[in-house]
Structure formats: structure tokens, C-alpha cells
Automatic annotation (TrEMBL), chain A:
Binds 2 [4Fe-4S] clusters. Its EC number is 1.1.99.14. Keywords: 4Fe-4S, Electron transport, Iron, Iron-sulfur, Metal-binding, Repeat, Transport. GO terms for molecular function: 4 iron, 4 sulfur cluster binding; glycolate dehydrogenase activity; metal ion binding. It comes from Halobacillus aidingensis. Pfam families: CCG (PF02754), Fer4_8 (PF13183). InterPro entries: 4Fe4S_Fe-S-bd, 4Fe4S_Fe_S_CS, Cys_rich_dom, Glc_ox_4Fe-4S, Helical_ferredxn. This is Glycolate oxidase iron-sulfur subunit. PROSITE patterns: 4FE4S_FER_1, 4FE4S_FER_2.
UniProtKB/TrEMBL annotation, chain B:
It holds the Pfam family FAD-oxidase_C. This is Glycolate oxidase. Residues 34-213 form the FAD-binding PCMH-type domain. Belongs to the FAD-binding oxidoreductase/transferase type 4 family.
């Protein structure tokens, strides 16, 4: 069954926008690209124009592809416009008109959703770093010739654990004493390959908080990257697989540590029609999805023993802040660490420009946004940036390098582990 | 490509003349009604560029429509005659404060709210506070002569402008007024330009007046079981030697809409509420608060609510701000008017609105700045319903007539733009409107600046529907 262009573009939803313009000051791309065409109001209007046949899908392409999807606009919209749905509808229509590319099909259908591929990616990165190949290629500028500015990101990657550490991870961490909560851990794809250590630290924090942790085997990619690139049908399939995987045991929480993945997980219910069985199952799933910072705050089971003499600032993941609406917990956790001085950003709500794969496909635009962010970061005088999403962490590392600064960029859970957390009771 | 467009592109830095369909659509609307596709969008960043564009437009007789953030509620920046949208929002934003003079110099792209923020650092304030101040540019506010809740005590934008720098339609740069509080040198061109809705010149700089920031504020909410009583209580307060900064009115439909949207505990059984803000020295506020409590009791108020904390007060003002989005949930299209009447006539105006509502069977709600007679009657409808929109056109016409019958005006703070132009003669008379038009014609002999605004075209009628 094919639905009309108007339906696929969520035409009816565009009428919720009263074009007041309150979203303009919140939109990073409006600020850096200096055009209404790259503002939420402009994009919604263009979607409407395309639906009415006054402009073509081709006209819509650039404005939609240059949207970060940070959803900052939705936090200031007085009429609660469902920008996310309008944005995804537009992405889908654009994707349908695009000729298929084999590499892309492989990446989205086989690569990200597969644990095997993700482990291979992690191990390959480890080999690259350990074998000296990284040094060699950096010295001779080999990666500079790679497409998509890969060399910029490559230097920002964390050190990889070896294949052995990967193999040795258990699927289940149980406690002898009664657990304070049973946690199903959503490991993520890139998170679990490139940021394996951060995942391990997350498990450790949960265990020390008195919880037990399980990695359901059948879990797969959250589908965020698919949805953001218009592959909605595929993202629905992934959602079903995850919902099923986490139904196998009675979890109190379904925990993740990547703002972008979490934002996708909490929106699973919107993928299904209300009243259907899948919708009901999705609602149950979503009600248990929590970011690691929320769960650590709720369990309240840790004391931090080691004093860290650091001044840090916190760059929230947009998807954690604007979609999952988690704002205070990460800040509260940082403040619990003895010795750490937290200096907040002037505009924490402003995206860092990472935005999924945005910084890879729209490199120049992402760097313009990063420059605005780095001004704010530098203004705090902090010696480190704490983030809550792997993409943001890489982007902040890149920002630090571009500014020629000596500053660390760490994931919140890695910072917490550094402070020697002990069980409170 | 047309010759003027080619020449325009050679005149400005690359990328500052936008002609793609996506870009043109993105500047075809504002926060009011209608969509009009311009031929080009020109982003200017220097006053010389503005002058160059106007000179060229004047030579080729191409219409130029200045635009700030596009938050206008009356169609000011709409390119109804095609041609050029002159995007002023990307001009460098500069706020140059002189605290000892209590003045500030600004460029047109500065967001109005930022002027007040800068002033507050020096214990000063910029008084006009339109609800879109955090988005709207001062250039747009000056062109439209915007108001806001504080207008009751402090007046509207025109009451805070000392001088302007303006590019004339013929591309010359002039200065009007100055930077002193008193200045009676010649005819007051500053006041002529402010509120001329971009029809006489393009504002490229302004010197504004600042005031000492009142040290404290006090919020009071009063509920009434009759709308008429609320209107009378407002008049009684203002004739008792008290001048609040704000006196905001919400009718029952608005109260219910807000409570359905984001509940804050407003009295849903009240026929109307007034939210008052007093400002001044804390000692004075204490006395005035007592006086108002007495007046309200005497006037038969249902309830007087004094917020216990700053947070509670902020909640009430937030509720007032939520009226606009909340009523948009009743029906998708909101036709918002700002007809204004002498304050003593508010109860009569409310009665007339009730009659209009019954006559056409439409959803009409009212809220707004009741203390200065500037109510915002809103008709809630669906612009996809042609028949309903035709009724709305008639109802709007009746509203304007009602306001004028009561000695009021078409617009208190939103401006005339496209929608109210057909009614200008009703208020000004034939000769009055003609004198206004003569001023326009002598400033802009080729009629290139913002044509289609303020002045009605022959036989022009209010049209809100698309057949």
C-alpha cells in the first residue's frame, strides 16, 4: 500500500507550526548558516510547500540534510510542533527518491546491526593502533588522503582494548546478595566496539550500585542512524527485535549510556499505531528505558573516594537533554565527586555538531557549529569536558585539538570510575 | 535572468543574493497570514549595501520589502508585490550602551530582549517588552512600533526612541532626532519613521532611551465572576492614583484553554481574571498592594490571589504567556486582532465581541493588555475550511467597526500591514488617509518601499480564504 506524498510528509502536522519564529534563536544551523532556509520554521514551511506541490523534493534535500536533528527547537516551541516526525518523514521521502548505493545498504543493513561486525571494527581499530600502523600512516599523512576527513576523527579515537578483553566479557553479572535492581544493558553498536571500555565502566558502576546486569543476546542496533537517514521501515524492524530481546527477563531498567541511542529507544512507541499489540509492547519497553545517569541517581548507591582535582564543564548530548529530557542527573553526579569543580556552559543546549554521522557527511558545517561550541567551552576556563554520548565525546576531542588546547574530553561514566566509586552500603 | 537581478548580484558579496526556490519560499511568510514568493532575498550587512540596493531598486522600480526575524503579526515583511525581501537580520548586532546618558545605540538586527539584558547589567531597563522580544529584532520593532504588557505604564516603542539612522527609498543615508531627551529641532521625523512599517525608509541604526530599573515587582491576580466587573475594576484602579506596570486580562475560554494545556491552577470557574504587576520601591509596593486589595474587594472581585514566592508569581506570568499556544489547541488557525478601545470602554467592547461570536457562530476568545485598552480578540478557525474563513472575514470586519464605534483604533501594537489596510479609511476618513498617502509619495516617489502595506489598494478587501 502506498500512501500519498502529503501523508508521508506529515502534511497535517505542519499546520501546528504558527510560524512565530520562537525556534530561530535555539537553532544552531540558523545561527551558523544565517538563513531562514536552515531554520526549523523554514524547514517545516518547505515540507508544507513540497506537500502542496509548490516545490520539489529536490528543493527540500539540502535544508533537511543540513538539519542536525538536535531537537533544540522542540524545547522552545510554544505549540508543541512534532518536528521530529516532520523531519523523519522528510528524510524518508528524500531517501526514497535517491538511487540506491551498495555501500550504504551494507552499512545500514548488515554492519551496524551486527555485533560481529562491531567487534571486528573494534578489533581492527585495536590492531591499527597497536601495530604501529596508526603512527606510520599519521607520519606519512596517509589518512589525510582518506575521504570524509577521516583523519580528523581517527586521531580522536580512544585506545582500544584487545580482542581478548572483548571475548572475556560476560553476558551476565549476578550478585550473591539480593540486587537493588535488575538491569538489562543496551550496549549499542559503535558504543560497544569503539567505546568498549566505557561500556565496561558502565557495568562496573551499576554493579557497585548494587544492581545486577544482563546483556540480552538478541539485542541489536537501536535504529537511530537508520531513522535519521530516512530508512524508517528498517528502523521499525530493529525496534521489534530489541523489544523482544528485552522481554525475555523481567528488567527493572533498560540502561544505555549513549544519548543518541537512548533517544531512539524512548521513541519506539511512536513507531507503532496505538491500539496494536506492538504499540503496547513498545510502551512497556519505553517505560523502563533509562540513561545511566538517571539510574545511578535513582539507585543512589555510590560514594566517591578519590579526590579529583579538576575543573570540568559538561556538554550534554542533545538527544539526552532535548528528547530524553535528562538534564540535572549528570550534573548532580559530577558534583558528587570530591575535588571536582563544575563550571557550566553558557549555552549547554547548543549542539556540538556531532549529531550522529552529521560531522562526517557535513564536515564543514559541523566544524562551524563546533567553533561556536568551543568558544563557550573555552569561556568556562575548564580543563576538561564531560559528555554523555560517544559522538559528542569524539567531537569535543576534535574541538580541543582544533583549538590547540590541552584539555580532556571524557564520557561521564569514565570520569565517575576515575573517582574510585564505592558501594554506599 | 532579469537585468536588475544580474546587477544586484554584482553589487553584493557572493552568497548574499538568494534566488533558489527553497530560499525564496523561506522568506515568503511571517507570523501572520499569507505567503508571497519574492524574486530574490538580499542579505545586507552594511548600511552602504542597503543604500546600494535601494538605489538600484529605485532605478529599476523593483519593490523592496525589509524584514527582521519575520515575527510580524500584521504582514509587514510579506513581499506582496514580489521583488526583493531585504533581510536585515544578518546585519552585525551591536549594542553600544551609555549608562551615564541612559541611552543605547543599536544596529537593526539586535534582538530586542538583548537590549534589556544589556541595560539590566547597569541597573537600567529598556521598557518595551513585546512577547516575542527574545526573537524579534529592534529594527522590526521600530518599523512596527511594537508594544507589550509594560506599555500600560511605559508606552510603546515610539516613546523610547531618541534618534534614527535611516536609508531613504532613494538610497540616501539620513539621521533623524539625536541623543538628547529634549529635542524639538524641526518636524519630528523620528516619530514619523517609527511605525511607518518599512514604507518610508530602512532603519539602519537607532538611539534608544533607557530608564532606571525598578528595584522590585509585585504580582497580584484577581478573579471575577462577571467580565463587566473586571473592566470596571481596571478603571477604578487606574483612577485611584496607582499605575501598575502591567494589567493583563484573560477571559474564561482562555483560562480553561491554559488549564487544559499546562495546568497552573488558574480559577477555571471565574468569568475573567486580571493579572497585575506593580513595580517600584518595595515600600511603595507594600502600600499599593494593600490599596489594590481594598479596591478589588469593593468592586466585588471573587478572589484576590497574592503569590507567596517569586516562583509562584513567575508561574502566573508563564500562564499568561501560554494563552497564545493554548488557544491554538482549540482550533488550528488563529486570527489574532489587536483592536484597541479607550480603557473605560472595555466592558462595552467585550459585550460587542459576545454579539459577534453569536452572530457568526465562531469561537472567539479575548485576552490581552486590558490596562491600556489593548485587547487581543482571537478567532479560532481552520484555514482549510473555506466557508468558515469567509465568516471569519466578516467577523473581523465587525470587530474593527465595534472598536471604532467605541472611539478606538484598528491596531494597538501589531501594525496595519496587509490585513487591516482595507479598513484604514474607516478610521482616518478620506482626507486623513490621503494626507498620509501624500507623505508616503513624497518620500518614495517610485513607490518601491514595501508596497501593498498600510495603504489599501483600490477595492482591496480582507481575504483570509483560498478558493
Amino acid at each position: 500500500m502506498t500512501s500519498s506524498l502529503k501523508e508521508r510528509l506529515n502534511y497535517d502536522k505542519t499546520f501546528d507550526c504558527v510560524q512565530c519564529g520562537y525556534c530561530l534563536p535555539a537553532c544552531p544551523t540558523y545561527e551558523t548558516m544565517e538563513k531562514e532556509t536552515h531554520s526549523p520554521r523554514g524547514r517545516i514551511n518547505l515540507v508544507k510547500m513540497v506537500a502542496e506541490g509548490k516545490a520539489s523534493v529536490e528543493d527540500l534535500k539540502e535544508p533537511i540534510e543540513k538539519c542536525l536533528g538536535c531537537m533544540a527547537c522542540t524545547t522552545v516551541c510554544p505549540t508543541n510542533v512534532q518536528y521530529g516526525e516532520i523531519f523523519e518523514g522528510a528524510k524518508r521521502v528524500i531517501d526514497e527518491e535517491r538511487p540506491r548505493r551498495l555501500v550504504e545498504d551494507f552499512l545500514f543493513q548488515s554492519f551496524f546491526p551486527s555485533s560481529k561486525w562491531m567487534n571486528t571494527l573494534g578489533n581492527a581499530t585495536w590492531l591499527y593502533q597497536k601495530s604501529g600502523l596508526q603512527k606510520v600512516s599519521q607520519r606519512f599523512g596517509l589518512t589525510r588522503r582518506a575521504p570524509l576527513q577521516i583523519h580528523e576523527f581517527e586521531t580522536a579515537l580512544p585506545a582500544m582494548p584487545g580482542p581478548k578483553a572483548r571475548r572475556n566479557r560476560a553476558d551476565r553479572y549476578v550478585r550473591k546478595r539480593p540486587a537493588s535492581a535488575k538491569v538489562g544493558f543496551f550496549k549499542g553498536c559503535v558504543m560497544d566496539s569503539v567505546f568498549f571500555e566505557t561500556n565496561q565502566n558502565t557495568v562496573e558502576l551499576l554493579l557497585r550500585s548494587g544492581a545486577e546486569v544482563v546483556f540480552p543476546e538478541a539485542q541489536t542496533c537501536c535504529g537511530a542512524l537508520h531513522a535519521h537517514t530516512g530508512k524508517v521501515d528498517h528502523s521499525v524492524e530493529l525496534a521489534k527485535q530489541n523489544i523482544e530481546a528485552f522481554e525475555e527477563e523481567g528488567f527493572d531498567y533498560i540502561v544505555n549510556n549513549a544519548g543518541g541511542c537512548g533517544a531512539r529507544l524512548v521513541e519506539y512507541a511512536h513507531l507503532f499505531d496505538e491500539g496494536t499489540e506492538w504499540h503496547e509492547r513498545a510502551v512497556r519497553f519505553v517505560s523502563r528505558v533509562k540513561d545511566i545517569s538517571e539510574v545511578l541517581a535513582e539507585l543512589d548507591g555510590l560514594v566517591f573516594e578519590k579526590e579529583l582535582l579538576k575543573t570540568v564543564t559538561y556538554q550534554p548530548s542533545c538527544h539526552l537533554r532535548n528528547v530524553q529530557k535528562v538534564t540535572s542527573e549528570p550534573l548532580d553526579l559530577i558534583r558528587m565527586i570530591p575535588g571536582v569543580e563544575l563550571r557550566e556552559l553558557e549555552r549547554p543546549e547548543f549542539c556540538c555538531g556531532s549529531a550522529g554521522v552529521y560531522n562526517i557527511v557535513n564536515y564543514e558545517d559541523a566544524m562551524d557549529i563546533l567553533d561556536v561550541k568551543m568558544q563557550d567551552v573555552c569561556g568556562t576556563g575548564a580543563g576538561g569536558v564531560v559528555t554523555s554520548n560517544p559522538g559528542c565525546q569524539l567531537q569535543m576531542k576534535l574541538g580541543v585539538a582544533r583549538e590547540g588546547l590541552e584539555m580532556e574530553a571524557v564520557h561521564l561514566v569514565d570520569l565517575l570510575m576515575e573517582a574510585d566509586p564505592r558501594p554506599k552500603w | 535572468m532579469e537585468k536588475w537581478l544580474e546587477e544586484l548580484q554584482s553589487l553584493l558579496p557572493e552568497g548574499h543574493v538568494l534566488t533558489s526556490l527553497a530560499d525564496r519560499h523561506s522568506y515568503s511568510f511571517d507570523a501572520s497570514f499569507g505567503e508571497h514568493l519574492p524574486d530574490a532575498v538580499v542579505q545586507v550587512k552594511e548600511k552602504q549595501e542597503v543604500a546600494d540596493v535601494l538605489k538600484l531598486a529605485n532605478r529599476y522600480k523593483v519593490p523592496v520589502h525589509p524584514r527582521g526575524s519575520g515575527t510580524c503579526l500584521s504582514g509587514g515583511p510579506l513581499p506582496v508585490h514580489g521583488g526583493i525581501v531585504l533581510d536585515m537580520s544578518q546585519f552585525p548586532a551591536i549594542i553600544d550602551l551609555s549608562p551615564r546618558d541612559l541611552t543605547v545605540k543599536v544596529t537593526p538586527s539586535v534582538l530586542t530582549g538583548n537590549i534589556n539584558k544589556a541595560a539590566e547589567k547597569h541597573g537600567l531597563m529598556y521598557a518595551p517588552d513585546p512577547s516575542s522580544a527574545h526573537v524579534a529584532t529592534i529594527g522590526g520593532n521600530l518599523a512596527e512600533n511594537s508594544g507589550g504588557p509594560r506599555g500600560l505604564k511605559y508606552g510603546v516603542t515610539k516613546d523610547h526612541v531618541l534618534g534614527l539612522e535611516v536609508v531613504t527609498p532613494e538610497g540616501e543615508v539620513i539621521k533623524t532626532g539625536g541623543q538628547t531627551i529634549k529635542n524639538v529641532t524641526g518636524i519630528d521625523l523620528t516619530k514619523l519613521i517609527v511605525g511607518s512599517e518599512g514604507t518610508l525608509g530602512v532603519i539602519v541604526g537607532a538611539t534608544l532611551k533607557l530608564m532606571p530599573k525598578p528595584p522590585a515587582v509585585q504580582t497580584i491576580m484577581v478573579a471575577f465572576d462577571e467580565v463587566r466587573k473586571a473592566g470596571e475594576a481596571i478603571s477604578q484602579t487606574l483612577t485611584s492614583g496607582i499605575l501598575p506596570a502591567k494589567m493583563e486580562f484573560m477571559d474564561q475560554a482562555c483560562i480553561i484553554a491554559v488549564e487544559n494545556f499546562q495546568p497552573v491552577g488558574l480559577p477555571v470557574d471565574a468569568a475573567a481574571v486580571i493579572i497585575i504587576e506593580l513595580d517600584g520601591h518595595p515600600e511603595t509596593l507594600r502600600v499599593e498592594r494593600g490599596l489594590i486589595e481594598g479596591i478589588m474587594e469593593e468592586m466585588g472581585a471573587k478572589e484576590v490571589i497574592i503569590p507567596k514566592s517569586d516562583e509562584e508569581a513567575a508561574k502566573l506570568w508563564h500562564a499568561r504567556k501560554q494563552v497564545s499556544p493554548a488557544i491554538a489547541k482549540i482550533k488550528p488557525t488563529k486570527v489574532s486582532e489587536d483592536a484597541t478601545v479607550p480603557r473605560s470602554k472595555i466592558p462595552d467592547f467585550m459585550d460587542r465581541l459576545e454579539l459577534i461570536k453569536e452572530k457568526y457562530g465562531l469561537e472567539v476568545v479575548a485576552f490581552g493588555h486590558a490596562g491600556d485598552g489593548n485587547l487581543h480578540p482571537n478567532i479560532l478557525c481552520d484555514k482549510r475550511n473555506v466557508e468558515e474563513m469567509k465568516l471569519v472575514e466578516k467577523a473581523v470586519e465587525d470587530m474593527f467597526q465595534a472598536a471604532l464605534d467605541l472611539g478606538g483604533t484598528l491596531s494597538g501594537e501589531h501594525g496595519i500591514g496587509t490585513m487591516k489596510a482595507p479598513f484604514m479609511e474607516l478610521e482616518l476618513g478620506e482626507v486623513g488617509l490621503d494626507m498620509m498617502k501624500r507623505i508616503k509619495d513624497s518620500w518614495d516617489p517610485n513607490g518601491i518601499l514595501n508596497p501593498g502595506k498600510v495603504f489599501p489598494e483600490k477595492g482591496q478587501k480582507l481575504v483570509l480564504h483560498h478558493d
